[in-house]
Amino acid sequence: MMTSDWQEKCARRKQAQLESIPKEWIIQCPPDDQLCVTNVPTQCGLLSPRELEITNTVDVEALLRKLQTAEWSSFEVTTAFYKRAIVAQQLTNCLTEIFVEKALARSKELDEILKTTGKTAGPLHGLPISLKDQFAIKGLETIMGYVAWIGRYAECDSVLVEILNECGAVPFVRTNVPQTLMWGETHNHVFGRTVNPFNRYMTPGGSTGGEGALLAMRGSPLGVGTDIGGSLRIPSAFCGLYTLRPSYERLPYCGAVNALEGQESISSVLGPMANSMSGVKIFTRAIIDSRPWNKDPLVIRKEWSEKEYRLEFHGGGKQLCFGIMRDNGVVKPHPPLHRAMVMFKDALEAAGHKVIDWEPHRHLEIYKNSETIFAADGGDDYRIQCGLSGEPLIQTMSPKEDAHESALDEPLVKTLVGKPHHRSAYELWQLHKEKRELRKSHLDHWEATVKRTGTGRPIDAIISPAVAYPAVPHGLNTDSFYTTLCNAMDYSTSVFPVTFVDSSLDKPHPPHEFYNHEDEAIHQLYDSKLFDGCPVGLQLIGRTQEEEAVIAMTEIVDEALKIYKAKTGRR
Amino acid sequence: MMTSDWQEKCARRKQAQLESIPKEWIIQCPPDDQLCVTNVPTQCGLLSPRELEITNTVDVEALLRKLQTAEWSSFEVTTAFYKRAIVAQQLTNCLTEIFVEKALARSKELDEILKTTGKTAGPLHGLPISLKDQFAIKGLETIMGYVAWIGRYAECDSVLVEILNECGAVPFVRTNVPQTLMWGETHNHVFGRTVNPFNRYMTPGGSTGGEGALLAMRGSPLGVGTDIGGSLRIPSAFCGLYTLRPSYERLPYCGAVNALEGQESISSVLGPMANSMSGVKIFTRAIIDSRPWNKDPLVIRKEWSEKEYRLEFHGGGKQLCFGIMRDNGVVKPHPPLHRAMVMFKDALEAAGHKVIDWEPHRHLEIYKNSETIFAADGGDDYRIQCGLSGEPLIQTMSPKEDAHESALDEPLVKTLVGKPHHRSAYELWQLHKEKRELRKSHLDHWEATVKRTGTGRPIDAIISPAVAYPAVPHGLNTDSFYTTLCNAMDYSTSVFPVTFVDSSLDKPHPPHEFYNHEDEAIHQLYDSKLFDGCPVGLQLIGRTQEEEAVIAMTEIVDEALKIYKAKTGRR
Known about the structure:
The structure is a homodimer.
Chain A: H1 5-19, H2 40-43, H3 49-55, H4 60-68, H5 74-92, E1 95-98, H6 100-117, E2 128-132, H7 159-166, E3 170-175, E4 187-188, E5 192-193, H8 209-216, E6 223-227, H9 233-239, E7 242-245, E8 269-274, H10 277-289, H11 306-309, E9 321-324, H12 335-350, E10 354-357, H13 363-374, H14 380-387, H15 412-417, H16 425-447, H17 450-453, E11 461-465, H18 481-489, E12 493-500, H19 517-525, H20 528-531, E13 535-541, H21 547-568
Parallel strand pairs in A: 2-3, 2-6, 9-10, 9-11
Antiparallel strand pairs in A: 1-3, 4-5, 6-8, 7-8, 7-12, 11-13, 12-13
């Protein structure tokens, strides 16, 4: 069979990527059937002890302090993370753009500034930052998983990159995405499939899956992704990371490429991913402090609020009341998620907070409204982009070989939205009306919890799974039921890691009365041996534009969980 | 000819409106050919001297102080304004819902609260407030100019009304609008045409034209309208008032009825109209201080910022630099507008500020994009609402009798947007992409003025006409070229009165090289005798979500103009 033109293009581009890796950074990889690879960076011998010390520093604040005091130079920090990122790449295929020289030159420039002026270049001085393959960098291609976009070199930086540079950061790699961005996994024809470093049989999630795998390998101290239905939170949950999905237009998206461009009913947002909450906070604050509304006209003119961060509208954070959504009434979570929620409740109550039940409210209706909006172009956006090169539109994330047997023929979303067709602008307006009514109804439902909290306030945040399961085998992640709620309602939401699947504790539950065929399929998928060792994260759902409060509450939760784990010996 | 069903419904509803007026408030009206009626309230004898003193108090802060100290009771203030509003109604046909008993009962309730508790009910204690016919009040009809909506009684208050009640205000009348809301004049089949009290041959503008006429008659101390393309600013300019068009979602629209519902590309916003800036500020601040985001999920969680009101990002307001847009390159303003801009420049320079030229930037492109978005449903929204009752869709605001000769057969907007047709959701997304690019381009253009101001900042605000002319004869207002810019770019914008047309000063200009046929028609329309005595207002255009700064800058401008007029003896 002849290789088609688009396949040749992909092969050439993949080869060019390989050649962009310094030869001396090529490692002896473990065999493909070694599932967990998180220890390889420490064992492969490429990184020096000091480089391991640097890259194992998950607290971004601590890292920045060492950079600010020149205890560590930006050059050595960037080199260390670059080496580890390249190790991650060889094990999980998480990267797209690799530009070692450019990043190292930039790091030297920053070292020079600190040396000659005694001052840092900004609040992120010297910090290497990885970026999802949407954030255009002048002079580099922005391929975003489309063959036709190979060779599109950016004429200017996206606003985020402009601001990161002004803040003294070092953008150093870009990371992989799924074709179209609208999958909760990460695979495209140009750069291929990214796998989960905790278990390579599993997906790292998506669409910010490249960041998920890279950060889980500690190949970056801080990554930036995007989220329109869970794309920051799914990979964060699957890879044991912290993230923040900010509200629409709080952070500057201008100049980044995107899927469904011009779709503004449910806006994609950008946010940080990291191995610590300090990374999440520092990034969010630095970007807001740069007054991004002067560069991106859509960004909300709202300064970072210390008052909100001090939780002044949440009783000063002294006694918070959380509402746990154990089950959204659409798909029931796997046993490890239930255990994580029990840990959460025990840990937070031990810390003096309250935990009550959240009653799901019109969850499926909200989900259906969102998915119908996303499909309003009848798929034109994807078809047009694929059509430019002739590459086929990917129909499943399941690998041809090594596929797990349980893929759903027809996920619930297809049943809900129906066959693809073009909706008119007027029909879209009717979906907006419906969405507004749903948002008002959900807000009133939230406000009404004031009767049950005993704090004089409605619940301070909702706690729920981000996904009904830990990372699943490639091709099986169809659940965005827990995450899409926050995009539709525009709730500021974090994800934080809680525990790991433990086959000795997380026994299968007996069948329940299934809500639908997908709920049944998810129930059947659970196999404690298969999932053993995978990270388990939860979402903390705050109100719209409550980024500061959500960060502060997640810090409180994180601290309470750490104390609880230390006391109980659990992990 | 038989009267059709919808006409009978209109006649009955209009009769019911007439019957809702207390008989003793019916005045002897001046003859129809008396054009200016602003003096009638003082001369008709219905209002006592004290009632005239109350209703002539244009400073809302002063009015509230007297209410707070019980020097004036809410009952007498509400009665006074109600009587004057009913006079205004008889002269200009500005009202829709009249509910004297309900409002007076509410005012007594507030007086009782103050008397028994010694405390006011809220920051707007006892203040009567008029509302555009969109803001639903429980138990009242919300007709909004559609015959089919007669008999639709609201089951609950709109969020704005809920908040006004919590603030201690007295919603006391609702005011007229054009059918569809999408006209810059005010006429519908149910309640008929509203006329301009400065010259009844002229339109008060629209769509918030009922408020315009009512406030110009001082029949209300404070009104609330909405703006999607100029609907607050056009009537404010035509009626000599102050207003603020806030940015999208700064103030709570939830629960108000609307045209083109679900159209969210360019959101309609609500704002105050008043005879003083103190009214504009007090309303805006009271609503924001009520934390409306807890009731309306779309409202931006941004507290009132004293820092922004103190103009900390505008050099403390000490030396502002304004950019004057003398001409937007689409239609050239009439001579009185030019004189108003010269007055502005002289007054502000005399007060120590700087005034430079603003170069219009892609003005027509922006206008075309907006108008294409508004028409994306091919007119379905209007047709469906009219179809419910069988009333015809109004094609012109020109009266059949007493029409001025100069109506344009085809305003520029029709040439630009083309024949009505249904656009797809995908096409709408492409318009959004275009709009985003235009917003970025306009923002960068604004930022680039930093090179020309000499203040170290870009210009602090743009000053421009709100409309190319003062109020025009009914049927002739086709210009929203100056206002739509702000809706499209989401610039926070005020309108303030500057002067009145003076036929001895405002001589016709010689023909210029016309930009288009509408520019030519507008030029030819100018006739200094016809326009003599009409108010002339300007816009102050600030950045997105800069409501506090725009209010503060307008206060500075207003003060400078008052000092300038006092010194020069101009009015």
